[in-house]
Amino acid sequence: MNRILVLALFACGSMLACTRTAEPPERKPQQAGQPLDPVELAARIAVSRAAAAVGDQRTVEANLQAIAEDYRKAIKLADPARSVDRESARQAARRIDGVRSVAWIDRENLFVIVSSNPARSYATIDAICLELESLGDTLGVVVNLQSGAATNGDDLEILSRNCQLAPGDRAFLQAKRQIDVIPSEIRAQHRANNPDVDARGLADWNRRNAEAMRAIENDTPEM
After folding, report:
1. Cβ pair 154, 162 in contact under 8 A
2. Is the dihedral of CA 201, 203, 208, 212 positive or negative?
3. What distances in angstroms separate CA 134 from CA 74, 79, 190, one per listed residue?
4. Is residue 150 part of a domain?
5. Which residue in 6, 52, 79, 221 is a FRET match for 187, CA 20 to 30 A apart?
6. Phi/psi of residue 74, each to 5°?
7. Contact between residue 103 and residue 223 where contact means Cβ atoms under 8 Å apart
8. How many structural domains is the chain composed of?
9. What share of the chain is helix, strand, coil (3-state, %, to 5)?
10. Which residues contact 118 (CB under 8 A, 6 or more apart)?
11. Is residue 23 part of a domain?
12. pLDDT at 215 (0 to 100)
């Protein structure tokens, strides 16, 4: 065998390793709140000026719109002209594995009940947001997840996040609505005040949490 080929195979470890292609990066939801890129902004301005000099109005308008879009996302301002259609969003969210039911609480908050505790995760929120991206501007959507298999206060806690922002952050003028039946602060205080809860007390705590969850399902429209 050619000596160079032997050395190449030795370096790779095997022919398979040499021919293996890199896997594409995992797709993530769009992100807002990032500062404007000064290099990209300067390039767009330069292109716009050059286009204006030769009368290319279409290129000028395209670059100005791109600058405006970048600025809108930088200040975390949802686009009201591209609001996500509610019913289409409900149907799209239901296609995600583990989702049991979906309803809109208000114009911004999508309430989703999943069938297991592991499904109450930011990964599920990512999957839902990716499904909604083709329907409009997901910066105007906050996904709220609750486990339908919850048996204690921690599992019952609702996981919330704006589709394009970090946990706890909200879009410009978007209110931080309290969705949890029992706020996390109260649960933490309860655990601190009752470190030795007996079996009967724990069972009663779980029962009341389950009843609260069923009440949400029954009282929320479009379930």
Report:
1. no
2. positive
3. 20, 14, 43
4. yes
5. 221
6. -65, -35
7. yes
8. 2
9. 50, 10, 40
10. none
11. no
12. 64
pLDDT tens by residue, 113-127? 999 999 999 999 999
Q: Is the domain of 193 the same as that of 93? A: yes
Tokens of 118: 């592991």
Q: In the 8-state DSSP scheme, what is residue 120?
A: S
Residue 41 neighbours by CB under 8 Å, 6+ apart: 67, 70
pLDDT in tens, 91-140: 999 999 999 999 999 999 999 999 999 999 999 999 999 999 999 999 99
Q: Cα(139)–Cα(173) distance, rounded to whole angstroms?
A: 12
Residues 117 and 183 occupy one common structural domain? yes
Structural domain of 120: 82-219
109-114: strand order across its sheet: 99-104, 109-114, 142-147, 159-162
* 100 and 198 together in one domain: yes
**Closest to 132 in 3D by CA, of 159, 99, 175:** 99
Neighbours of 35 (CB within 10 A): 7
What's 113's DSSP letter?
E
pTM, two decimals, is 0.69
Beta-sheet pairing, 159-162 with 99-104: unpaired
Helix (H) or strand (E) holding 48: helix 38-53
Last residue of a domain, one of 75, 99, 122: 75
CA pair distance 87, 103, nearest whole angstrom: 9
3-state secondary structure of 104: strand
Residue found under tokens 């200040």: 75
